[in-house]
Amino acid sequence: MRIIRDTFYVDPADKGAAVAIGNFDGVHLGHRAVIDVAAEAARRLEVPLGVMTFEPHPREFFAPDAPPFRLMNAAARAHRLEKLGVRKLYEVPFNAALAALSPRDFAANVIVERLALAHVVVGEDFCFGKGRRGTADDLARFGAEMGFGVSVAPMVDLGQGDISSTAIRTALSEGRPRDAAAMLGHWYRIEGAVIRGDQRGRDLGFPTANMSIAGLHPPQFGVYAVKVDVLDGPHAGSYDGAASIGVRPTFGENVPNCETYLFDFKGDLYGATLSVALVEYLRPELKFDGLAPLIAQMTADCDRAREILADVG
Question: Of the candidates 101, 15, 28, which has an alpha carbon nearest to the alpha carbon of residue 58?
C-alpha cells in the first residue's frame, strides 16, 4: 500500500483511484461498508482502491486540548486498511487552509485537481468543507458537475443502533472489549513501539513490554487477557498474554500506559512494534499493600487469561 501524505505534489501513478472518504477511526464495520462500496467501484472502473483520510484528525485540530479520543493512531489505521486491500492511502494534511475551503472548493481543489479521483464513496452522515456545510448530496451534485462518480453508503447497525466510534469508545470505557470488537469487526488493538519502563515487572518475575497510550482514548483501566502480534524484529509472531492498562497505583503516580506480559516468551522487545488486542477485561486496577499480594494476583490473572485465550482463535 502506498501512503500519500503530500497531496499537493502527487505522482500521476497515485491519481485516479476510487476512494472512500472519512476519518475511519477504528476502521469499524460502518467504515468497512463504505470501503466495500469503493472496492466495487474500483473493480468496475479498473482503478486502484483508495482511502482518503485526514491527519491530524479534524477534532484534534479544532480542539487540541480536549481529552484523547482516538481509537487508533495513524500507523495502526494504515495497517488495518492495508489488510482490507487498500492500495492508495491519502493522508490529507488537515490545517487551517484545508479547513477554510468551501465544500465546492474542496471538491474542485482536492478531489479533482490534486488527486483526479475517479470515484468517491462516503457515508450517509458525511459532512465536509468549511463549517461542515457540505453534505453527501452536495458531493453528488459536485461529482456530476466536475466529472467524478459518487456513491453514498448506508449506515450499518447490529440491531441495537448505528455502529459508531462513539459507541465503541463507550464499550471500551466500560470494560467491554468483546462488544467493541463486535462493532469493529476485529479485536480492538493498541499498537506502538515498546519503550523502556521502570523494569519492575522483570524483578517481579513478569517482564512486560511497555507501550504509550498517549493520544488514544483510554480503555477502562485494569487487567486484560490479550492477543499480541509482534510486528517486526527477530521475535515477530503471535503470542498470548495479559496486559495491565493504567497508572500502576501500587508504585505511586504514573503516566497511563499499557504493560503486556507475553506468555512463554523470552527475548528483548525494546524498539519492536506490538499490536495488543484486548480480548477480555479481567479486573480493575488495584493498589496492593506490598509485592507479595501483587505477585499472587498477577499469577492468578495470567492463569485466568490462559484459560480464556485457549478458546479464542
Answer: 101
State pLDDT tens for residues 121-158. 999 889 999 999 999 999 999 999 999 999 999 877 65
The whole-model pTM stands at 0.90
Residues 85 and 40 in one domain: yes
Nearest Cα neighbor of 153 from 50, 42, 51, 30 is 30
- 153, 169, 203 - which closes a domain: 153
Residue among 184, 157, 162 nearest 80 (CA): 184
Enclosing domain of residue 242: 187-309
Per the domain annotation, does 179 fall within a domain? no
DSSP secondary structure of 147-183? T-EEEEEPP-B-SSSB--HHHHHHHHHTT-HHHHHHH
Instruction: Please identify, among 128, 153, 178, the residue that sits at the C-terminal boundary of a domain.
Output: 153
Report, as residue numbers or ranges, the catalytic residues. Answer: 259
